[in-house]
Amino acid sequence: MAEPTEILREKVAVSCRILAMEGLVDDILGHVSARIAHTDEMWIRCRSPEEEGVRYTTVDAIRRVDFDGKGPHRGEQYQVPNELPIHGEIYKKRPAVGCVIHAHPKEALICGITELEFRPIFGAFNIPAMRMAIEGIPVFPRSYLVNRPELAAPVIEIMSEKSICLMKGHGITVTGKTVEEATVRALNFNTLARATLRVAQTGRIAPDISPEDIEKLPDLGSTFNDTWVWRYYVRKLKEEDLRIGFEK
Questions:
Q1: pLDDT digits over 3-44, tens only?
Q2: Residue from 170, 162, 115, 174 nearest 142 by CA
Q3: Is the CB of residue 174 less than 8 Å from the CB of residue 101?
Q4: What percentage of the chain has pLDDT greater than the value 70?
Q5: CATH number of the domain at 5-240, out of 3.60.10.10, 3.40.50.20, 1.10.1200.10, 3.40.225.10?
Q6: pLDDT at position 30, please?
Q7: pLDDT at 222 > cutoff 90
Q8: Which of 27, 41, 175, 183 has the largest CB neighbor count within 10 A?
């Protein structure tokens, strides 16, 4: 059952602030979108003349546009992201995707440009992140701005049906069925990238965990992996917003 569009809009804004709070995006760079059910439209984070950065995203900055960034709901004062085609072209080609995140986490950036390999070097510490390493992370080797549909096409081709793509020298693109799933997925990948980088910085080579240990790790389900984790970060965000005096 599709959730009310205004609730979905609020979740996009919350996702933006969570990603910024956790360091996956800096200043004004990075954006989140969500498909509006039964339409060819999306909610997407836009910029206005009063832009203050992704950490301070308000619901007003989340605008309703079609997959090409056009529509009567856009609002003249707001500008869609330059890399809107990352979102729109994925929605066109992958109907099951309900949320797209484009972010610039520093650890993932360094892993990409130094060509570090993502391997299952931990297990129960973060099972979803470990499974990402096992399944493999597609790497797009170019660093250009994805500001036209034809430039998004090769990214989507390399990404295929995977939920994460590391864009070398650029950032990451993450998809999910819901805003919650995509957001938590981006955070988990950031954990994998951070661990991969810090192990490399020790100068030692960490072994993969054993196949026997991998086999014993359960799938804890979407409630455990997505819903509860999302709620934790929403609560953490509320407390942080209160601490810094941010008014939504």
A1: 789 999 999 999 999 999 999 998 999 999 999 999 999 999
A2: 170
A3: yes
A4: 97
A5: 3.40.225.10
A6: 97
A7: no
A8: 183
Strand-pair partners of 99? 34, 176
Query: Rounded to two decimals, what is the model's pTM?
Result: 0.95
Secondary structure of residue 4 in the 3-state scheme: coil
| Torsion-angle region of 169 (φ positive above 0: left; ψ -120 to 50: alpha; else: beta) | left
Is 180 an active-site residue? no
> What CA–CA distance (Å, rounded) separates 149 from 89?
7
Q: How does pLDDT run across 79-130, given as a tens digit for each residue? A: 999 999 999 999 999 999 999 999 999 999 999 999 999 999 999 999 999 9
Q: In terms of C-beta distances under 8 Å and separation of at least 24 residues, what long-range contacts does 64-70 make, across chains too?
A: 64/5, 64/9, 64/36, 65/41, 66/40, 66/41, 66/42, 67/40, 67/41, 67/42, 67/91, 67/92
Catalytic: which of 83, 89, 107, 181? 83
For residue 235, give every residue at least 6 positions away whose Cβ sits within 8 Å of its Cβ, in sequence order, or none. Answer: none
φ/ψ of 102, rounded to 5, equals: -120, 120
DSSP 227: I
